[in-house]
Each structure stands twice: as C-alpha cells, then as structure tokens.
Amino acid sequence: MNKHLLALLSIFVVVTTNAQNITGFKSENVKKQLDLETAFESQITAANLDSWMKRMAARPHYVGTEYGKENAEWMLKQFKSWGYDAQIETYQVLFPYPKIRILELTEPSVYKAKLKSVPVSGDPYTEQGEELLPSYNAFSRDGDVEAELVFVNYGIPKDYEELEKLGIDVKGKIVIAKYYGSWRGIKPKLAAEKGAIGCIIYSDPEDDGYVRGDVYPKGAFKNNTGVQRGSVMDMPLYPGDVLTPGYGATEDADRLDREDAPTITKIPVLPISYEDATPLLEALQGPVAPVSWRGGLPLTYHIGPGPAKVHLKLEFDWQLKPAYNVIATLAGTEFPDEWILRGNHHDAWVHGAADPVSGMVALMEEARVVGALAKKGQRPKRTIVFCAWDAEEPGLIGSTEWVEHHMAELQKKAVAYVNTDGNGRGFFNAGGSHTLQTMVGEVADVIMDPQKGVSIKERRIAKDRINGGDDKFELYALGSGSDYTPFIQHAGIASLNLGFGGESAGGEYHTIYDTYSHYIRFKDPEFAYGAALAKTAGRIVLRLANADVLPFSFDPWHKTVSTYLDEVMKSSESMRLEVEKHNKLIADNAFYLAADPTEPFIEPGKKEAIPFLDFTPLQNSMMTLESTIARFDSINFYSLPDSKLKALNELLMHTELALTDASGLPRRSWYKHQIYAPGFYTGYGVKTLPGVREAMEQNEWTEAGEQIKKLALTLDKLNNHIEALCSIAKN
C-alpha cells in the first residue's frame, strides 16, 4: 500500500478513535467540538505572531514606561476589534529604579566594574542607549558596604553546608554567587540569614556563555558583558506588590511603610557580567573550590575569604508606578458566570522578545481566532477571559493584585486558569493541576509537532523515555515563577502552565539581547512553535469552555499525590536511619579512626534523634479517596438531565479550592494550597505536600506532625467534595 495512503489512514484512525471519547463531552457533541477545534486551528497564522512581536518588542517596556502603556493600549484596541469587552485595570505598585550602582575591588588590587552591556553588530535594538534599563536586581535594599569577598558557588543551602564543613563563615562578608542552581532571590536571602552584608550574582560562562556555544551575536549564548536582570523579592513569602500583601494595590489602598515590607531583601544585591566578575574571582585566595563549584572562566576558583575586598554601593528611586492589566472578556452563551481564564504577561526587563512577548503574541492569536469564530455564530458556552498582565517581572505583581482585588468573584466564577510565558523551539512542557492531566494529554495527542510530524505528546514521551521515563504523559507540579501562582496557590483555582522549549537555549534571558533580532535567529525563526502554542492552549481553552461535564479527572491526581506521600514517608525513614548511623559512628569512635591525619579534624557532634512520624492519617485519607474516586468514575454523568449537569459543573469548578486551607502554610499564610507551593528555599522550584515536607527538612518534627494532621483534613475535605459530586447523580 502507498505510504502516503497509510499515513492518511493512520491520521483517520487517530481522529476517529479520539472522536469516540473526549473527556467532558457527550458522544453526540464530540464531532461538533472537533469541527470547531479544526476550524480554530486552521485559522492560526504564524505571520501575525511575527509582526506583533516586532511591534511589541521594539522598545524597552518595563513597569511604568511609556512604551509599556502604549503596548497595553494597542492590545486593548486589538481585543476590542475582535469582539471582546475589553478594559485596562490599573494598579499602583512599588517599583525601584536604580539610581546609583557602584562595585569596586579595593584590595589587593583595584578594579571598578563597568556594569554595562555593549551593543552588538546586526542588532539595532541593543543600540538604544539610555532607554535600556540598567542591569540591577529589583527589591534589593539600598546599601553602602565594604568587606572581604567569599565565593559561595550557587549560594543555595547545600553550598553553605559545604562552607561550614570547610570552617568558612560569611558573617560580615560580601558573597559572590553564580546564577542558576536556584531562583536568584534565594541567594541574597540565604546570604543575609548567614550574616553576609552584601551579595553579588554573576553569570558564569559554563551555564549560559561560551562553554555552551557561540556567544551573541555569532551564536545565541551570553557574551562577556551580558547581565541578567531580575527580581530578588522574597516571593516564597508572598508575591505581588510588596506594600499591599493580600489585597489589591488600588490607588486608595492602605500601604505598608517600605521599611516594614518583609519581602524586600535584607542586604544590597547586584548582578554583574562575567567580564566584571573575573577580576573579583581572580583576586580570591583561600581553599580551592570543590570540583562541582568550578565554572568556565580561565582561572582557578578559590573560595576566600579575601584577600579580595569589595565595595558595593546601591541606591534606588522607590516610586509607585502604574501597572496596566488588559482584561478582555467574551461572554459565554449558556454559562456566562463560569469563566475560563487565559493569561500571559506583557512587561519585560528590556525588549523581552522571548520573555514574555513570544507567549503574549500566541495568546493574542488565540483570542483573534476565537473572536472570529464567535462572530460567525460559534460562541463558547462559557465565558473566556483573556488577560495580558503587567509587572510580572518584578514579582508577579499585575496578576497577583488583580487576583487579590477580585478574589471573591474569582473563587465563585473561575473554572480554570491557563498560563503561558516565554516560548521557543522544541518539546511541549505542561504543568499544573493533576485533575486536568487527562484532558491536556488528549489535546497534546492531536497537536502535531512542527518539525517531526508526530504529535507533541508523542515527541514529549519519546524525550522522557530517552531520559529514563516511561510512556505516560504527566503534568509537572507547579511551583512559582509565572502568573499562575496567585490563581492556584492563593485563590485555589485549577491552573496550567504551557510552553515549548529545549531546542532554543541561549544566554539572552533578562538581558539587553532578548530582542526580535535574537529571537528570529535562534529561538523560533518561523514562529512555528508559537503557532503550535496557540493551537494547544486554544484547544484547551475551547474544551474547558464547551465541555458538557468539566474535564476534571481524579484518578491521575490520586496516583500523583500518592507518589508524593511515598516520597515524604521514605524521606522521613531515611533521615531517621541516617541520624542513627551518625550517632553510632560517634559512639564507636569511628570518625576518629577514619580521619585523615594530614587534614584538620573537626569533631562531629551528636545529632538529635528524629522522632517517629505517624503518617497513618494521610494513608487512611488517601485510601478513602481511592474508593470515592472509583465510585465517581463508575457514574455516567453524561446521562444526567441538564439541570443536574449544571449543578455538577458548579461543584466541579471549585474542586481545587477544596485543596486549600484558609490558614495557609507555616510562616507564609498567603500560600493556601496544601499540595503544591514554591519551596521556601527553592524559590520557583516546587515543594509538594509543602507543609509536611518543609517541616521535615527544617527538623521541625512537632510541626511536621501537626502538618500531617492538617493535610489529612484537607484530603478529607476533597473526599467530601467528590462524595457531593457523586450524590448529584443519586438525587
């Protein structure tokens, strides 16, 4: 048989098979939905993404800039022309602009850091001079400090454990840390807790410079003067405007005094290039850094302290700036008070072609086509709200303020939030609420990869298998780092974060080189993956908007959370055994016998025994849930009359809320979700079952026991919620 005919038959079989069952749709409505999605997909035009990016990334548009406002007003005009009820909602947020930035090596030699990235040939956007935002870390504290320098690798907890073993203390010192390894805000946070008085963060070429590939403009990677800007706000405490925690930063809102804002870092911190970092690192002596700490610079990496001594002086202009959120609404025909929210931010540290405009233009193309279909009579059943957030870069501020301001209405009306951010060429990545995993997998099964001619799901699984995974398509758990955070972790709204990448690496992130010129050379030259993102997110939004039964599946959630529980139980046992082994070695004098007589020996202390943690409440709750979920899965909800389906969906849409607790997590009550949260010392990185897991990691065993009971009550609340769903079919 002709191979082309075989391929066509294969596609026919896939479509036919999928047509038999789409999660959330009655069999008689499946074809109508698939036809709508096919019509939607056929109208996605990559050329629009290209022209819109060129327009939006033409000039710097960080918070409070005139061009940021122009972009918001331009997007507002587009949404209105596509048939949306659109408006700009403005919040007044604290934003620091750098006034003074001085970094000097004062001993044993003298060097004054340039703190300036150079324009490159062939990229006119890098030549915009004073309009380019200087490199700095937003929400650093003002300061004027001078002290010996200490190299702390990535500046994460395990690095300080290594320093402690070496007998090196950073108290009263200035630390220099590499970017990567963790979210940047963790580096000054930990340094301050360890007693440091200042922090410098530099980009090592091993991570995103010449070790990885040719540097810009020849290649995609960071050149010697590139500097990553970024916020160091203590977002694991709470994101959003630092002066209005938990409520919207409206013009007349009560505000904290800046000195009382807990999410502003405690010490001054400055990012620098590897050109400026080199003289500082060369001047360090002390122990040679461990092998795993050494980067790609042509020098011997020493830790210090000293004899390198540096002077760091920072001063900021702290002003309230307007943040412009564009909110575009297309009312649903049948369920206007059930909202599907779709968002991406539009502000950038400089031009932001990759981050965030590549995702923003995909969202706009989705909105354009959905609007065009609505004008032809194919309006969604539920309301779709497209959101273009401002002030994401300094701390998820625009989205957080909007969620806090509209909290009561959102918790009543929101079904789900679908987020994107930067996008590039490569593999499909999807994270989010595991109740949505089945639906996302079904959509990923019908979107074709632009390069490989297979589904984006198939390509994702192939990569996972190469890396030791299996044939399952799974969502990753959401930590933080983009605008889904206030929706899922504060408001308890089911959320997704979508994007493509893995074949578009570079060093442009948050630098003056994240430009249209860079993007069309190295990221997604034909905007094929931008179009793929629009098709993927658009299908997900349309399925949520038109489903007969909202496509929440509990079995994937239960399987996933069961693995989290297994992890913390095994971790508890391994920690207990490790302490017992340590204390036995001390009792047997084994440490003395093993010590190298040529090295200084630090006598280890006996560790406090780890108490037994009773995980029975969690195990019991998960067993009960398993039974209730099986009962839910056995019910044919599609056969229910419309009145009962309406009641079912009104309850289903609040499922994620059942996984929150009003008291929040210990020491950070803003984070309400009991299953997913950013780690207190990982920043963006997720901590699952965070109340229990982090109490264990901090050796707070009484608290760990309390958090086990609290989590069990949360799981019981979800069980009651699912039982209520089941009861709708009976009554």
Write a compact overview of the structure shown.
The protein is α/β, with parallel strands linked by helices. The chain is 39% helix and 17% strand.
Describe this structure in words.
The protein is an alpha/beta fold and 731 residues long. The protein folds into three domains: 52-93 and 321-505 and 514-546, Aminopeptidase (3-Layer(aba) Sandwich), CATH 3.40.630; 96-319, Glucose Oxidase, domain 1; 554-730, Transcription Elongation Factor S-II, Chain A (Up-down Bundle). It has 22 helices and 16 strands. The protein has helices at 3-20, 27-42, 46-56, 66-81, 157-165, 186-193, 205-208, 274-282, 353-375, 397-405, 407-413, 437-444, 456-466, 485-490, 516-522, 528-546, 554-587, 590-594, 616-633, 642-652, 690-697, 701-730; strands at residues 85-107, 111-112, 137-138, 143-151, 174-178, 198-202, 230-231, 269-272, 309-330, 335-345, 382-389, 414-420, 426-432, 495-502, 676-678, 686-688. Strands 1, 2, 4, 5, 6, 8, 9, 10, 11, 12, 13 and 14 form a twelve-stranded mixed sheet that branches. A two-stranded parallel sheet has the order 3-7. It has a two-stranded antiparallel ribbon with strand order 15-16. It is globular. Residues 1-19 have low confidence and may be disordered.
